[in-house]
Structures are given as C-alpha cells and as structure tokens.
Amino acid sequence: MNHDEVIFLGSAYVIGLLANRLFLPPLVGYLITGYILNFFGVLPFSGLHHFADVGIELLLFTVGLKIKPRSLLKREVLSVGSLHLIIVTAVSVLLFIWQGGHLSGGIILGASLAFSSTVLAIKVLEDNGELSTFHGRDVLSILILQDIIAIGLLAVANGKTPSPWAFALLALPLIRPLAHRLLSATHSDDLRLLLGVFFALAGSALANYVGISADIGALLMGVALSSHARTEDIAEKLWGLKEILLVAFFLQIGLSELPTVEQIQDAIVLLLALPLQGGLFFLLFVLVGLRARTAFISSLALMTYSEFALITTEAVVKADLLSSQWQATISLAVAGSLAIAAPLNRFSHRLFSRFEPFLSRFERKSGHPDKLPESIGVAEWLIFGMGRTGTSAYLALHEKEQRVVGFDADPTILENQLSHGRRVIYGDAEDVELLNGLRLERIKGIILTMPDFEVRCSAIRQLRKRGYVNFIGTICYFEEERESLEMLGANFVIHPLTQAGNHLAKKMFFA
Question: Which of 13, 218, 289, 337 is most deeply buried (CB count within 10 A of its CB)?
Fold first, then answer.
C-alpha cells in the first residue's frame, strides 16, 4: 500500500468518525473527504475508480440475492415508478428548453434527475434492517425499474445500442442448477466468500461484454441465485467487503471536480427541488393505496439524485448536448442530496410520528395492501420479529398451549410462517399506529427479537408510553444495549449466544 492510499483511508476514517459523532452516517463524511482532498489537490490513486465499481457490483449482487422477480409486477411499483419518471422528466425538459437547451439533452438530463440513488437507498434500508420489509421491497423494486430504464437511456446518451446478445442475460436463471450445486458443495467460509465475489464479478463482466451496465449484470446474477438456502450466508460474508469498497465510491464523487460559484448556485436550486421530488413520490404512493406511513418512509428513501446522473451527464456533455459546466453541477447536487437524505432517513420513523396528523389526511380510507391487523383475537402473547429467535419463542409458547401471535414486516417471512400454519400478521414494531391500535389488556407478555437496536428501543418506549405494564422481553448483543433496554422498561434481556452456551452446558451436565 502506497502513501496515497494511506492518506485516503486515514482521511475517510477521521472525517467519517466526525460525521458519525454528529449523528450523520459515515458516508456523508466520505463525501466531504473527497471534496477536501480535491480542494488540496490530492489526486485519486490509480485503483480508486476500480474499487468503487467493484463495491457497487457487490452491493447490487447481494441485493439481487434478496429479490423476488414477481415484486416488480406489483401495482404500486409499476404505477409509481413510471408516473414519477414521466412527470419529473416532462417538467425538467420544459425548464431546460426554456433556458435555451437542446431537447434531447434535456430529456436525458431530466430523466436522470428523476432517478434515485440506488446505493444510498439500499445502504439506508440495510442499515435500518428494513431491506426486506414491505416498503423496503417496494423501494428496491422501483430502483430496479429505474435501473432497467437507465440501460436504454445510457445507450441513447452514448449513441450506441446494446449488443443483440444482451438478451442472453435473460437466460441467467438457466445456470441456477449448476450454481446451486457449487453453493451446496462449498462448506468453507473462505471459499463461500470467494464464490460470492466470483458470481458477482462474472455477472458484471458478462453484462459489460454485451453492452449492458455491469451493475445490472451483477444484480441479475444475484436474482438468478436468490432461491438457494445459503444466499443469506453469502450476503453476510460479502457485507464487510462491500462496505470497505463502497468508501471508494463516495470518495470519488467529491474527487471528480470542484464546482464554481455559479455551479454551486445551480446545484442549490436542484437541492431545493428535492422536497418536490419526495412530495410527488408520497402523493403517488398514497394514490395507489399505501398508508401514509409506508408512503412517507418510502418517499424519503427515494428522495435523492442518482449517481447514474453523473454517468449520463458525462455522456451528454461529450455529445455536445449539454455544456460542460453541468458535470460539476450534477456532481454537487448528487453529493448534496446524499448528504441531506442520509440523516433524514435515519430518523424517518420519528419524523413521520411528528407529522402524522397532517400526512394521514392524504391517506385513502380503504384498500391498503399494507393494512394494519383489525384484531389479534384472544392472543395472550405477542412476538415482534419472526426470524429464528422469534420463531423459537413462538414454538415454545405454542407447545405450552399459550395463545400467541407473531408480527413481521417481511412479506417473505409472513408467507413462510403462514405455510407452516402459524398465526403471524403483517406488522412493523416501529409503526406507532400499530402499537397504539393493539388491544393489550389481556396480553401477558411481549417479546421483541428484531435485530436493530433502535427499533427495539423505540418499541419498548412506545409500549410503556401507552401504559402497558406487563412483561417485555427482548435480546441484546452488547452489554451497553442491555443497560439501555432495561432503563426503557424491558423486564428480561438476554444475549442469544450467551444463553445458547448456558443451555448447552446444562444439557450436557444433566445428560
């Protein structure tokens, strides 16, 4: 490692740490680091762009592992995604022509500004543990729809069309049997990580060869493998690697070009339009029948400018359809939108709680696909989070002939649990409306097994605020979490791995 790489990594860590102390995601610090290094004349080292590309490919590959193709055909995905694109593009084109720009350049730029940042949205949803929730899947599906449209848009911007062999990518699912055999035969953690990286890069290389975006190839390869039982394990193995490589992506945005005063002013105008983008998404989500809460959280996740706009702007500038000053303007607008959206998404649930009385007025009265349960019947125990821990708790209570109901916000988990005859209902533990609407008088105990610490804290806080006085049990992964959860009102807090060790020792001792 040369000294340039040490400077980049050290600077990213220090400024990322400062951002984190200010309750901002580290990625905001990485963006700022790129601009600071650019200001002092530090040039990117030779492998930075390549590392950034690999990071995005690994990210989209792991996302593809979690995709159910039929989710793209949902009404809210097709209608909201397409209508938003048409409206934003039309308005942008009119403004661009009014300022004397080329029609074709305005169409491509306008469509690019309608797209949302795939990297940030997925990163935020993943960090919040919401990638598999109802709204997380809708956001992800809209992003994929945008990426598919982006393929054709980029082809127009570059003045070339994809190879006829591009349709061969649709045959990727045919390699599924062979890929599944390889996954099943791979037992070593190191080899499983290597195999995951190979699949991601193989998909991107194949797509690049036939004239399609490499990112789309990585995504489609993930989709092709999504049904295997070990895909979740591969995604976990790739998590740390892609996190490190994505630092390069955020650094290179700031390193691209320092803007002039005029370009900064233009970028500020674009950033001021962001609430209009988010508002349009919200209204469209509500019109297709989603609850105000789902619409608001989804809209915040999509309220950014896409890194794809950087690519199309460069192509359009080279084709002399835009002036070169737009490159720095769009770069700053994209970076600024990421910096604004990241903290807003971190507090999206709290923000909705504050504005709920106003936002709920826009909600349709019926027909919500994300509707809340009308009743929990005669249940005496509630479990939020029906993963492995939640399912174990459910089965233990069921064996004791206790009346128990599970809640989960992941449609796939719901489908699986219902197929086993368990009583599980759609519900998000951060949904204040859900917690306030539950009849808790006869509930003996509530178990919270969601992986995200903030979600567990929020649920306990809201339940105690409602006046619930019976038992609340939850999990923790660090000792400081235990203290915070008990202070908020949890009666029982266990560490899953510690309890597993205690249980194993007792079983062996009394054998």
Answer: 218
